[in-house]
Design goal:
Layout: E1 2-5, E2 11-15, H1 24-36, E3 44-47, H2 53-60, E4 65-68, H3 70-78, H4 86-97, H5 102-114
Parallel strand pairs: 3-4
Antiparallel strand pairs: 1-2
Helix pairs in contact: 1-2, 4-5
């Protein structure tokens, strides 16, 4: 599913696709379809860390900034934390990525790193 948020803040479902597999080639075809339907540009595209996704995005929408999804980043980080510490660490991690500005996020990162 691709959800778009317009410059005036309106959310729209741009497409819902079901494919045989999830590959960068598949997503490139989805992005090209959006382009053919009239999507002119994408400011930021948030997705998982699929191999080749950045290149697929750049091929369809060269000016688009790719951002890895925070859910996937957290999930990847937590797999390196012992089971007994995961819940507490996940709570601490939220103080970083939910901070209201960069300064507060860096302060939270220092606290979590120290802990």
């Amino acid at each position: 599913m691709i959800l778009g948020i317009s410059t005036d803040g309106k959310k729209e479902v741009l497409t819902i696709q079901v494919g045989d597999n999830e590959s960068s080639k598949y997503w490139l075809s989805v992005l090209n379809e959006l382009k053919n339907r009239g999507v002119k540009d994408i400011l930021i595209l948030c997705a998982d860390g699929l191999t080749g996704i950045k290149e697929a995005i750049a091929a369809a929408f060269p000016k688009t900034e790719y951002q890895r999804c925070i859910v996937h980043q957290v999930r990847n980080t937590l797999k390196y934390v012992p089971d007994k510490d995961r819940k507490a660490f996940a709570t601490d991690l939220k103080t970083i990525y939910q901070a209201s500005d960069e300064k507060k996020a860096l302060d939270a990162l220092d606290r979590v790193t120290e802990k």
